[in-house]
Amino acid sequence: MTQAAIGIDIGGSATKLGLVLENGNIINYGVVQTPQSYSSVQIINEIFIKTDQLVEIARETTSGLTGIGISICGYLESDGKAPDYINLHSLDHYPIVKAFEERYNLSTVLDNDMNCGVLGEYYFGGGKSEKRLMVMTVGTGVGMAMMVDGRVLRFHEGTVGNPGHIILDPHGPICVAGCRGCLESLASARAIRRRAEDVALAQRETRLTEILQAKGHLDPIDVFDAAEASDEAAQEIWKTTGFWLGRGLASWVEIFGPEVVIVGGGIAQVGHWLLNPLKEEFYRCGEPYFTRRVREIKQSKLGQSIAMLGAASMSLFPENAPKWKSGLE
Fold first, then answer.
1. Structural domains in the chain plus CATH codes
2. Tell me: the pLDDT tens digits for 69-80?
3. Given CA atoms 77, 81, 86, 92 in this order, what sign does their dihedral have?
4. What is the spatial distance between Cα 250 and Cα 246, in angstroms, rounded to a whole number?
């Protein structure tokens, strides 16, 4: 038997949990609903129920637990023990680390979901041992993190900041955080949904109109299905989304200089519909001195488990866990 860790990825509406071995194999995996309407106590109790199960399974199937790693979408308080600004606001300033350590008597570490994403790819995905690895995630939001020489790059609140809000179109839509025309406002799941519903209501001949009439709303999966069925309007939506992501990435590489870029998150699962226009715009508008240093831009193979796996890795490989005191060192 081998050691394992529990990885927990707390999202804006659901939380993913897994029991992860040192080689990245997931022994047991689960998703619990943690909606915005829940109080902090309700959310933590729901997570505890599944975590209790994982602890019991670990006792039966592994040589022991190294600890618990938790990913959150947001920033952390200066001591790293609680979220400071998270997309699940009922958990703002909730002492998550203390709560888990007291319940399970296991070392618990908390970090930003983007940092966990790049750790997941570095240890278990397509970025193993890469010297300069960038991970872009596209889902409800757009985010990015970097590994440089085997270490997570941290220079703003324990992260690289919030590059998903780089301004690309000053006349564009306003995102949920209040930016106008940022990458997230133009290429996230919300942007795809908005663009698809606009097309469906514009009296064009498209399968999206039929789906909207049947469901009352459209999701990115509907746009993918329509594109796969040769719907030109849906294919154009993916081209537009990839266009903005490629333009954003062209700006990011000027600053961060990655050698490999992995695109993850729920939206990345559409594959070539997104990646082809992303690469086309990236190489069209990016400075060749920097773009030619990017050896590869590819889709993540870790799917929805990317941040959960990265969270577990902070316990399995503690050299890349954040080190907090009065602030991140």
1. 3-119+305-320 (3.30.420.40), 129-301 (3.30.420.40)
2. 999 988 899 889
3. negative
4. 6
